[in-house]
Amino acid sequence: MEQRAQVLKAALWMSGAIASFTSMAIAGRAVSLELDTFEIMTYRSLVGLVIVLVVAGAAGTLGQVTRRNLGLHLIRNVSHFTGQNLWFYSLTAIPLAQVFALEFTAPLWVIVLSPLVLGERLTPMRVLAALIGFVGVLIVARPTPDSLQFGQVTAALAAVGFAGSILTTRRLTRTETITCIMFYLTLMQAVLGLICAGFDGDIALPSAESAPWLVLIGCAGLLAHFCLTTALRLAPATVVIPIDFIRLPLIAVVGMMVYGEALDLWVVLGAAVIFGGNYLNIWSETRR
Predict the structure, then answer these.
(1) What is the tens place of the pLDDT at every residue in 259-272?
(2) Which of 287, 284, 282 is nearest to 11 (CA)?
(3) Stated pTM of the model
(4) What is the pLDDT, as a whole number, of residue 83?
């Protein structure tokens, strides 16, 4: 019963992450014509750092920030910074549903590497659930050599970066608090963003129109990682991450309603398959 409760709590936290990532995609596309991806990441991280310092200071948890795993924090944030920049670029190059579909190859990397990096048990049911979800992704994206676009390549590479971030986050949750992880997330990525954005000697300042979107990106990004990190503390990565597949049908509907992107039968079919994989995974874990 206790394990079932933990898995269900993790699923609820992942629901918050899904809503936050979706909001961030909308806001990222809104500011993409004015700022490049490095500038977006810089302002997002600075907003997040202010929030972390204010909230942690009010809660009295700043003392939980330690320096014992700086190397692992750096690996996590370089991996995530790379993936996130590729993700923001992909938002401007291909339809939202395709971005999210290709991003969802990340759980496959997580499932394959979790036994090696985290020592988590790879059960046949977890593999089956992930494969079902991936089949749904292929149904939605339907990639072919003739239709391959650069934005699809960057979205696929972003998934590799996100998988590395997920695995190192799980390692960090064994010894570090959420405050510590969030502090280094925002601080390190703000520094990385400033270095990359300022490489050409020109960092654009946001306009009055884009400033609210940047605040939303910062808040949504921080909340998404808080929810994701909390979920990973409650359940194994191979259980938590496949739940994120639900983001795909959600963003397909958003793309249709907000940007006029086509929502066809293949998207509906793929979403149904993805849901089936997620349901099978959660049902199996709560029954064990």
Answers:
(1) 888 877 777 788 78
(2) 282
(3) 0.81
(4) 94
Among 234, 187, 223, 157, which Cα is nearest to 22's?
223
Q: What angle in degrees, to the nearest 10, is found between the helix axes of 150-172 and 70-93? A: 150
Say if residues 225 and 179 touch (Cβ distance below 8 Å): no
- What is the 3-state secondary structure of the chain? CHHHHHHHHHHHHHHHHHHHHHHHHHHHHHHCCCCCHHHHHHHHHHHHHHHHHHHHHHHCCHHHCCCCCHHHHHHHHHHHHHHHHHHHHHHHHCCHHHHHHHHCCHHHHHHHHHHHHCCCCCCHHHHHHHHHHHHHHHHHHCCCCCCCCHHHHHHHHHHHHHHHHHHHHHHHCCCCCHHHHHHHHHHHHHHHHHHHHCCCCCCCCCCCCCHHHHHHHHHHHHHHHHHHHHHHHHCCHHHHHHHHHHHHHHHHHHHHHHHCCCCCHHHHHHHHHHHHHHHHHHHHHHHC
By CB neighbour count within 10 A (0-12 exposed, 13-18 middle, 19+ buried), where does 133 fall? buried
Task: Determine the pLDDT at residue 286.
Answer: 67
Task: Return the residue matching tokens 């749904």.
Answer: 136
Name the residue type at position 221. G
Structure tokens that stand for 270 in this block: 């793929």
pLDDT digits (tens, 9 = 90+) for 201-228: 788 888 989 999 999 998 998 888 788 8
Phi-psi region of 142 (alpha: psi -120 to 50; beta: other; left: phi over 0): left
Give the CA count within 13 Å in the CB-facing half-sphere of 261. Answer: 19
